[in-house]
Amino acid sequence: MQSPSTTLVTMPAGTPAGMPVTTPAAVPAAVPADRAGHGAFELPRLTAMLRHALPRFVEGVIAPVAVFYAAFALLGLNGALVAAVAWVYGGIAWRWLRGHGVSAMLLLAGLGVTARAGLAAFTHSAVLYFLQPTLGTLMVAVSFLASVPLGRPLAQKVATDMVPMPEAFLRHARVRRFFRRISLLWALVFFVNAAVSLWMLFHQSIGVYLWVRTGLVAALGAAAVAVSVWGFRRCLHQVNAVTA
Q1: Which residues have a Cβ under 8 Å from the Cβ of 121 and sit 6 or more positions away?
Q2: Which domain holds residue 114?
Q3: Is residue 12 one of the residues assigned to a domain?
Q4: What value does the mean pLDDT take over residues 119-132?
Q5: Tens of pLDDT, residues 59-112
Q6: Has residue 192 got a pLDDT over 90?
Q7: Neighbours of 184 (CB within 10 A)
Q8: Which of 109, 138, 182, 218 has the CB geometry, 3.0–4.6 Å to 155, for a possible disulfide?
């Protein structure tokens, strides 16, 4: 079985070269060494990106829900809060012991979970534990939406963090238009996420909220990712046709 081919974008001769490209060890190289100074760009294979993202999605989204709900069913609210905090700090300790390094974002997440768990334990309300991240989702939606009129689409920042791209490619009019549209799409996704979460949080049980909301959000996110990848490949094809 042959591996799916990647798409190559080559900018016109004389186009200023982009910034030097660095690629994380876990992600395939986005720019070949012999083309690094000529504005060329190759999209990593989708399977490679999924292999990179899936373990993080399971660890950060699926597993915490499973741990919290299992502990909630067996030990009650306080036991579930302790299990959630233990899961986060256990992940931090596991990375540290294996020498993988602990990111500042993960440490901040640990502090955030600790604060949420402490507040929920003090008030004896599981609603408060889930309210903060839902409000955070709403703020992310506002950030995506506000980035478009400011001319700095947040979707472009997220994409270039995952797959480094030459500046010459990012300055292309079609590419800029694509990232504006995708930023609006993700703003809508996060707004719907927040609205559904808030409604379920105040109108359904915690068990229903955890599983139904998680499934709906995962399905909505998967659809948005599929549209984003399809749109990006279409944009690459159009840019190829112009530069050819």
Answers
A1: 77, 78, 81
A2: 23-243
A3: no
A4: 80
A5: 666 677 778 778 887 888 788 888 888 888 888 888 888 887 665 556 656 777
A6: yes
A7: 16
A8: 182
Q: Measure the CA–CA gap between 88 and 104, rounded to whole angstroms.
A: 13
In a domain? residue 239: yes
Residue 164 lies in a domain: yes
pTM of the model: 0.62
For 101-128, b/e burial (b = at least 16 CB within 10 A) is eeeeeeeebbeebeebbeebbeeeebeb
Q: Which two tokens mark 51?
A: 């292999």
- Tell how far CA 55 is from the center of its chain: 12
**Dihedral sign, Cα of residue 79, residue 110, residue 133, residue 55:** negative
Query: How many whole angstroms separate alpha carbon 239 and alpha carbon 226?
Result: 20
**Closest by alpha carbon to 139, among 202, 96, 187?**
187
The total number of structural domains in the chain stands at 1
Kind plus residue range of the DSSP H or E element containing 158? helix 154-162
In a domain, 2, yes or no: no
Tokens of 182: 């995708």
CA distance 83 to 213: 20
Residues 133 and 207 sit within 8 Å (Cβ to Cβ): no
Count other Cβ atoms within 10 Å, centred on residue 193: 21
- Only one residue has tokens 């660890």, namely 59
156-176 residue pLDDT tens: 888 877 777 788 888 888 889
